[in-house]
Design brief:
Elements lengths: L3 E9 L23 E10 L1 H10 L11 E2 L6 H9 L9 H9 L3 E7 L1
């Protein structure tokens, strides 16, 4: 098991989401609406938090074939509790992930080996 994990999103750039992207908004000044972008949404450090994050979003940390996140499988309370123990604090929750999904982003779990 890796020592950190993250949730990443790939999808069409939208100005109304820029404050939720990984980098400051000025980083995206040249992006056009609809342009494909990738952004990290949440990162956790440590084996225990990585496993808890995987469970909270309905994926199997040991099986990469499950790492595409289905927003219907997100366990809001578990996700909030897991992220509250990480550097993400309470900035990210299930509704945050579903907002990206509704905007046409595909969400993925990723282990950092």
């Amino acid at each position: 098991m890796a020592t950190s994990a993250e949730i990443v999103a790939v999808g069409p750039f939208r100005k109304d989401l820029v404050d939720h992207f990984e980098y400051p908004s000025d980083h995206y000044v040249n992006c056009r609406d609809g342009q494909l972008v990738l952004t990290a949404i949440a990162t956790v450090d440590g084996r225990s938090l990585s496993e808890d994050l995987a469970d909270a979003i309905g994926v199997d940390a040991d099986d990469p074939s499950t790492w595409r996140i289905d927003p219907k499988n997100i366990k809001d309370w578990d996700l909030t509790e897991t992220l509250s123990r990480s550097s993400c604090g309470d900035e990210v929750d299930g509704s945050h992930l579903r907002r990206f999904a509704a905007a046409g982003f595909t969400l993925f779990f990723r282990l950092d080996a």
